[in-house]
Amino acid sequence: MAKSVKKTAKKAVKKVPKKAVKKQAKKAAKKVAKKSAAKAPAKKTGKKFLVVYHVPLEAMAQMANLTPEQQAAGMALWQRWIERVGDSLVDVGTPLINGKSLRANGSSSASTKEVSGYSLVVAKNLDEALSLLENHPHLSGWHPEATIEIHEAMILPGM
User: Fold this and answer.
1) Is 33 inside a domain boundary?
2) Global pTM?
């Protein structure tokens, strides 16, 4: 009797047309995509601006010696800025180290530009982008030589 149940089950599985299975899979995928699209926040449109953070290299080394409490206080400043900027922040970025300067002749050397990190923001114009950088944690006084540069990303035709 067990053999006849197995045979019947196999026949039932074989009789389901492949097209129907594919159709159900597509329906399920569309449903999931629709739900996740509804949950995703709308991307802000506008011009992109690269925010470049500068600080002397020794300041970056000093950060490794901060206590956990000092690190947490610094990160809290960054978190408040991230929340304030909201969907204008395309990429919070990351600290940068060990930069290299490359030349056309194939040689290279350690970078002396003191680039310590970056972020990417979107705004309708430079004035709006600059307003996003008001009270920025990089300029909070943690290092007297800390500076920020901001550059508008050019749109390349056909890209």
Assistant:
1) yes
2) 0.70
